[in-house]
From TrEMBL, chain A:
Single GO term (MF): oxidoreductase activity
Protein name: 4Fe-4S dicluster domain-containing protein
Residues annotated as domain 4Fe-4S ferredoxin-type: 1-30
Superkingdom assignment: Archaea
Gene3D superfamilies (UniProt xref): 3.30.70.20
UniProtKB/TrEMBL annotation, chain B:
Keywords: Oxidoreductase
Keyword Oxidoreductase recorded: yes
Claim: Transmembrane helix is one of the keywords in the record: no
GO BP field: cellular respiration; organic acid metabolic process; sulfur compound biosynthetic process
Protein known as: 2-oxoacid:ferredoxin oxidoreductase subunit beta
Annotated GO MF terms: oxidoreductase activity, acting on the aldehyde or oxo group of donors, iron-sulfur protein as acceptor
Pfam family, one: TPP_enzyme_C
């Protein structure tokens, strides 16, 4: 699975930056065409749902998607799925 | 079906301000509705007037955007005419407790089988930040420039006293718990009332030293006191810290209800 932010919906409130347990979302530094600072993704392959959703066949964690007031965060299916080694720091 | 199918995608992005928590509550509600496997054709969302009441306009089910404070009478009518339909009411604190207060207590008394989700942003957000019945004591707003000197409403206690079957309170920070509470409330026969405290950085936070979303969310997180912890503190005879509000499932009972699905 691949984590994506829809920058046509995001309003730059940075709530995802606050709630992500892995700090994947970082505050945006450049504004987009609509003048909104969309958060940047820092090594999104660390995301629990990206790594384990194909294994468990259900959504794991998902706090960023639920707290996003603008429905901008979603996961895309990647085909074929290749598990890769990820270093997790706590 | 996925949650995305419940949205009118052509209407997004919605008109809520950046950082407004109403979108979070729509997410949690639609997630709960989706997990229960309800059909789009058999679900109706009803709302009154206010920021929160814009919500059904972004949901692809049938919806009613009704007069100020009168969402509950319309929902009662829908439920009485179509008892097999699932009726959910989105409402705000000004809508529900100020102009619709009498309708609210009578809907609780009748115990109609609907779910009421109150997005309590503690202010009249859409009209420019006037003080509402839920504005906390001492808070600044455009109509209370020296601080609110009236006591706020406790909507959960009101619903419990008036006879609702299920009453819970959460904030827009507690998304998982809120999702569970809404899922439980949707399944419960009788009126289930879920109060959600939501951040309003534009009109409430700006005047109360909580200018950005992060500080509003952390203020809500720090002032939330779990019901279990409150009960433990009371049992031990310790004082409850000042300025805290109780979150959790406050009432869960099985009184006879009106209009339950056959």
């Amino acid at each position: 699975m691949k984590l994506v932010i829809d920058d046509t919906r995001c309003k730059g409130c940075n709530l995802c930056v606050m709630v992500c347990p892995y700090h994947i979302f970082q505050e945006g530094r450049t504004s987009n065409r609509r003048g909104i600072f969309v958060p940047e993704l820092d090594r999104p392959e660390r995301c629990t749902n990206c790594r384990l959703q194909p294994l468990y066949q259900r959504r794991l964690c998902g706090v960023c998607q639920m707290i996003c007031p603008d429905q901008a965060i979603s996961w895309l299916h990647e085909a074929p799925f290749e598990p890769h080694k990820v270093v997790i720091e706590y | 079906m996925s949650v995305e199918d419940w949205y009118r995608v052509d209407r997004l992005p919605h008109i809520f301000c950046a950082g407004c928590g109403n979108g979070t509550i729509i997410n949690c509600t639609l997630e709960a509705v989706e997990s229960l496997g309800w059909k789009i054709d058999e679900t109706i969302f009803v709302s009154g007037i206010g920021c929160s009441s814009r919500a059904p306009g972004y949901i692809s089910t049938d919806s009613l955007h009704t007069t100020h404070g009168r969402a509950l009478p319309f929902a009662t009518g829908v439920k009485m005419a179509k008892p097999n339909f699932n009726v959910v009411v989105f409402t705000g604190d000004g809508d529900l407790s100020a102009i619709g207060g009498n309708h609210f207590i009578h809907a609780c008394r009748r115990n109609i089988d609907i779910t009421v989700i109150c997005m309590n942003n503690q202010i009249y957000g859409m009209t420019g930040g006037q003080g509402s019945p839920c504005t906390p004591k001492g808070a600044l707003s455009t109509t209370t420039p020296y601080g609110m000197d009236e006591n706020p409403f406790d909507l959960c206690e009101l619903a419990t006293a008036a006879g609702a079957n299920y009453v819970a309170r959460w904030t827009s920070y507690h998304v998982k718990e809120l999702n569970q509470a809404i899922t439980f409330g949707l399944q419960k026969p009788g009126l289930s009332f879920i109060e959600v405290l939501v951040q309003c950085p534009t009109n409430y936070g700006r005047r109360n030293k909580l200018r950005d979303v992060q500080s509003m969310i952390s203020a809500m997180k720090d002032h939330a006191l779990l019901k279990e912890k409150r009960d433990r503190l009371l049992a031990e005879g310790k004082p409850i810290p000042d300025g805290m509000f109780v979150v959790g499932t406050l009432t869960d009972r099985n009184r006879p209800a009106l209009g339950v699905k056959q």
